[in-house]
Amino acid sequence: MRCASRRAAILPPAGRIRRRRAGRAHRARAGRALAAALGAVGLAAAGVPAAAGAPAQTGHLPPGERSLAETGSAEARWRVDLRLSGQRVIFSYRGLVPPPALVSAIRAGEAAGVILFADNIASRAQIARVIAGLQRDALSSPVAQPLVVMTDQEGGQVRRLPGPPDLSESEIGSSRDPLKEAASAGRAAGRNLRGVGIDVNLAPVLDVARSADGFIARYGRSYGPVAAADAALGAAFIAAQQRTGVAATAKHFPGLGAAAGGQDTDLGPVTLRVPLRTLRSVDELPYRAAIAAGVKLVMVSWAIYPALDPRMPAGLSPAIVSGELRGRLGFAGVTVSDALGAGALRAFGSTAERAVDAARAGIDLLLCADQSVGEGIDAVGALAGALRDGRLPAGAFRAALARIARLRTDA
To answer: What is the reported pTM?
Structure first.
């Protein structure tokens, strides 16, 4: 991934507790409705069979949409396909004002969320207003669910929003009390992001740095070279941050710690010839700890790992996403791609082709981070076409939507 107002605070404790309980109950109801509407209703309306014995219910759709879906018209089916597919795509944009094309996609129910970069943020007040406006647009859409709003707030050099965490991961790892500092950083990051309406942090980095001049370590983005220490510190950050209500993302699975200084997947292809035994005993160790700590998301790397799959970047590889991460490590949360526009994917087709291949591999959320709304629109259309013609199996698609629904409920 590229480097470079709170009313609850003034309520008495009992009021805050009641509000939090009410908020959790509302999110739970919203999540169940989304899972039902998108996971079964939408697929049935799109002509994709639901799970055996599951009735096709259109009651969760607005009356106008319900009547269209019930007619089975091509227009209705395609509209539903686009909305289903949009729930798997994260958009981005350039500048301080969301462009009309993004607002239109959100109002149409064809966007899962947005990722924010530094040039989207002039101040905390400004970005809080923007996020609130986008959330209003999302709730007025036919899907009527909140957006997933994310950013990279790792600490040190990689911070999109002003404020904590101030220390980089390498500074935390070399501090006098690393566990205390990691938990403090996670808590501070969560409170900072939650205060403006951001509910997913693309942190912490769990790459086990091999040397100080490696790609990850030179920016201070690794806790250090000892896998067990990285595992403990990452888990502490995750647990503390998620207690604030902001979901954490462990990245970049199965690990970029072996990458040399010039091996940047944003710029070009990277192959990491790490033996399988080392990958599993060193690089994957922090992910096992993160999963045990309840991490909500895992971002998958665009590097190629010949020990696991000699041909495909990790995020396009069913063997790595569905096999290694989900099957072997047992991760049941949301998988998210790194930026679909990365230079590492030049040989793997257009945005549309990459989006479909990543979804087929097992990636739930596709990150369109080129700050071009058209990139996200292309990804949504590609997923809808692949769902329609069967290149993306209905059962796996439904399972991805259910995981994303749970993320929205819990965030």
So the answer is: 0.85
What is the chain's mean pLDDT, rounded?
Answer: 86
Check residue 72 and give its pLDDT: 61
Task: Check if the beta carbon of residue 59 is closer than 8 Å to that of residue 371.
Answer: no
How far is Cα 6 from Cα 41, in angstroms, rounded to an integer? Answer: 36
316 DSSP assignment = G
Amino acid at 404: I
Per-residue model confidence as pLDDT tens digits over 287-301: 999 999 999 999 999
Non-local (6+) Cβ contacts of 280 within 8 A are none
Amino acid, single-letter form, for residue 191:
R
List of residues 6+ apart from 15 with CB closer than 8 A? none
d(CA 32, CA 353): 31
Give residue 108's identity as a one-letter amino acid code.
Answer: A
CA pair distance 77, 379, nearest whole angstrom: 18
Residue 292, amino acid? A
Q: What is the pLDDT of residues 47-98, one digit of tens each?
A: 333 333 232 333 334 444 444 444 567 878 888 999 999 999 999 999 999 9
Structure tokens at 154: 């790792």
Contact criterion met (CB below 8 Å) for 387 and 81: yes
- Residue 140 CA to chain centroid, in angstroms? 23
Helices (H) and strands (E) in the chain, counts: 15, 10
What is the C-alpha to C-alpha distance for residues 46 and 270, in angstroms, rounded to an integer? 39
CB 287 within 8 Å of CB 251:
no
Structural domains in the chain plus CATH codes = 86-410 (3.20.20.300)
10 Å CB burial of residue 276 (0-12, 13-18, 19+) is: exposed
Please give the backbone phi and psi of residue 93, each rounded to the nearest 5 degrees, phi first: -150, 165
Q: Which helix (H) or strand (E) holds 330?
A: none
DSSP H helices in 313-393: 318, 351-361, 373-389
Name residue 187's amino acid: R
DSSP structure string for 127-156: HHHHHHHHHHHHHTSSS--PPEEEE-EEET
pLDDT confidence of residue 219: 87
The mean pLDDT value for 207-226 works out to 92
Closest CA to 271 of 313, 300, 227: 313
